[in-house]
Amino acid sequence: MFFLKSLNHVNKLSNSIKNVISVRYYRPRRALMYVPGDSSRKLTKAFNLDVDCIAMDCEDGVAMNKKDEARETIRNILNHEKVIVKRDFDRAVRVNCIGSGLCEEDLKALLTAKFLPDTVLLPKVESVEHIQWFAEKVNALIKGNGNVDFVIFIENPIGLINSHQICRAAVDLAQTGKFTPSSIVFGSDDFCAALGATRSEDGVELLYARQKTVLIAKAFNLQAIDRVHIEFKDLIGLRKYCEQGARMGYTGKQVIHPDQVPIVQEAFLPSKTQFEWATGLLTAFNEYQKKGAGAFVYKGAMIDKPTMKQAQNIVDVYESTKNA
Ligand SMILES: CC(=O)SCCNC(=O)CCNC(=O)[C@H](O)C(C)(C)COP(=O)(O)OP(=O)(O)OC[C@H]1O[C@@H](n2cnc3c(N)ncnc32)[C@H](O)[C@@H]1OP(=O)(O)O
Ligand SMILES: CC(=O)C(=O)O
Ligand SMILES: [Mg+2]
User: Fold this and answer.
1) Fewer C-beta within 10 Å: the chain N or C terminus?
2) pLDDT tens-digit map of 159-197
3) 304 noted as active-site residue
4) Which CATH number fits domain 31-267: 3.40.50.300, 3.65.10.10, 3.40.190.10, 3.20.20.60?
5) Is the CB of residue 33 less than 8 Å from the CB of residue 253?
6) Using CA atoms, how far apart are residues 18 and 313, in angstroms rounded to an integer?
7) CA of 279 relative to ligand 2 center, distance in Å
8) How far away, in angstroms, is 95 Cα from ligand 1 center?
9) Could you list which residues have their CB under 5 Å from ion ligand 3?
10) What is the per-residue pLDDT across 24-83, written as a single tens digit (0 to 9) for each?
11) Domain limits of the chain?
12) How confident is the model at residue 94 (pLDDT cuts 50, 70, 90)?
């Protein structure tokens, strides 16, 4: 269900479960926070927050006449080693979309800085050709053994229709490429605009696209990152939509304002009760496997492999996110 990179994360395990359960490496993106790349003030503020992912933006958060400034400001940041204040965050960049004619210049500036960004976010992906274009540029620009995580944005109808082939191409080209597909972002604002839909309180106009995006993500073992709640002062609504997204299978949510971060980070973190349920279940599962039993009863419910996988997901996320 989740993207796995290596097993070296096992060192972070709590002592109590260290010898019983393994934890798979997981780079969390519960809150993916946009910061306009031309705003040094906001960037400085963001680096001091307790947030999983900071997306330094060259795209829609930046005015057309500030694109050069954003690119230069972000490149200067990437020329310095990442400084961890609150937690080891994902230092990500969102480049302009391929159709804009600005993407190549963004990639050239950002992938040749002294340190690579951890992740490149590519908006408005529409086709396999977009992925091929991206792979060619990234592979040519990144030197040596460098590799970046890759986040695909689905934010218009043609992108959604082609999303299966897009993900297939990304996963296949990554085998020999310098990028690793990690997530799909649902860009609901652009999606609404492209659809000609009117945003409503319950978001019914986006339901199909929101569900299909999470479905495609999970089919390719990618994280699924839910829509922005643009009414950033409405923190009660934000919590409600986080809970709804998490129930649908989303693993995180895009945010635009610091006040949104703690609510989102908390909403996508499994509770201590869930974690204890999961570790207890995994321990029992290991014991029953040794005895040759595939199915068994745990806390009154029948458990077999699918429930074990859900429990493992909870442990992975909990362990990777709890440490500041
Ligand atoms: C659909 C999409 O593509 S979404 C992605 C593109 N959009 C964006 O990136 C927008 C990001 N967000 C923002 O720029 C801002 O939050 C706005 C414009 C919406 C509101 O900004 P403000 O009016 O300054 O909000 P507010 O006064 O409440 O901000 C409080 C503090 O948080 C800071 N802040 C606000 N947003 C951010 C942010 N995204 N990152 C870092 N710091 C931020 C402000 O600078 C301010 O700090 P300061 O007083 O020390 O300067
Ligand atoms: C986040 C974003 O890019 C969108 O909703 O369009
Ligand atoms: Mg968008």
Assistant:
1) C
2) 999 999 999 999 999 999 999 999 999 999 999 999 999
3) yes
4) 3.20.20.60
5) no
6) 16
7) 36
8) 19
9) 155, 187, 190
10) 778 999 999 999 999 999 999 999 999 999 999 999 999 999 999 999 999 999 999 999
11) 31-267, 272-321
12) very high
Q: What pairs with residue 165 in β-bridges?
A: none
Could you tell me if the CB of 290 is within 6 A of ligand 1?
no
Q: What is the ipTM of this complex?
A: 0.99
Atom from ligand 2 closest to the CA of residue 193: 6
CA-closest candidate to residue 268, choices 229, 322, 310? 322
How would residue 16 be classed by pLDDT, with cut points 50, 70 and 90? low
The rounded distance, in Å, linking the Cα atoms of 162 and 240 is 30
At 258, list the tokens: 């610091």
Query: Rounded to whole angstroms, how far apart are CA atoms 250 and 319?
Result: 18
Record the pTM.
0.92
Centroid of ligand 3 to alpha carbon of 292 (angstroms): 51
Q: Which residues pair with 217 in a beta bridge?
A: none
Atom 15 in ligand 1: which residue has the minimum CA distance?
A: 257
Q: Is 189 annotated as a binding residue?
A: no
194 pocket-lining for ligand 2 (C-beta < 6 Å): no
